[in-house]
Design a protein that fits this description.
It contains 4 helices and 9 strands; from the N terminus they run αβαβαβββαββββ. It is α/β, with parallel strands linked by helices and 184 residues long. It binds guanosine-5'-monophosphate.
């Protein structure tokens, strides 16, 4: 039966359901809780794509963490990273001496993350690690160590759970692949 959502979801094929995402995020949260107990954890959410993942991950970590947001915009079209990153919104407080965990939606070429790690490393955190929901190793141009990873995926353009397609679909509760039309 057609629902009001069918048009909106009609071109999206589910890759990871909301339940699968919740299960993986809970496991990552438990792992991070174990590793960061006794530390001064700052979850650094990279906007915009990581906002949904970071919100769920934060609630899966049982520690008195702090959350910061870093707004970044990548020059280039929506489906291909240029590696030139503009910081559109900076942190509200310094992270010097704290244990920073960068929360990324997806590591594709690795160019965005390697640039961010360089910038953040210069701010003197006690430690700097990465938690990424998705990794597309097929397109790697710059290797970055991902300390906590949700899923490794094939070279497909994915949307939902914070990830956009021309700024839309971030609110889909699952991760899906666009099945027709142009990406970006
Ligand atoms: P990278 O610099 O690693 O190539 O790109 C990272 C950024 O590109 C991600 O944070 C995300 O914003 C965007 N991106 C890369 N692959 C995808 C994808 O499959 N879907 C969406 N929606 N964005 C992607």
């Amino acid at each position: 039966m057609a629902t009001p959502l069918s048009g909106y979801r009609g071109r999206i094929q589910t890759l990871y359901s909301a339940a699968q995402l919740a299960e993986r995020v809970a496991a990552l949260g438990a792992e991070i809780t174990r590793d960061y107990t006794g530390k001064s954890l700052v979850l650094l959410c990279v906007l915009k794509g990581s906002f949904v993942f970071a919100a769920d991950l934060a609630r899966a970590i049982e520690l008195p963490l702090r959350v910061e947001f870093l707004g970044v915009a990548s020059y280039g079209d929506d489906s291909e990273s240029s590696g030139v990153v503009q910081i559109t919104q900076d942190l509200t407080r310094p992270v010097e001496g704290e244990d920073v965990l960068v929360v990324e939606d997806i590591v594709d070429t690795g160019l965005t993350l390697s640039y961010l790690l360089e910038v953040l490393g210069a701010r003197g955190p006690a430690s700097l690690k990465v938690c990424a929901l998705l990794h597309k190793p097929a397109r790697e141009r710059k290797h970055v160590r991902i300390d906590y990873l949700g899923f490794t995926i094939e070279d497909r353009f994915v949307v939902g759970y914070g990830l956009d397609w021309a700024q839309r679909y971030r609110n889909l509760p699952e991760i899906g692949v666009v099945t027709d039309g142009e990406e970006g």
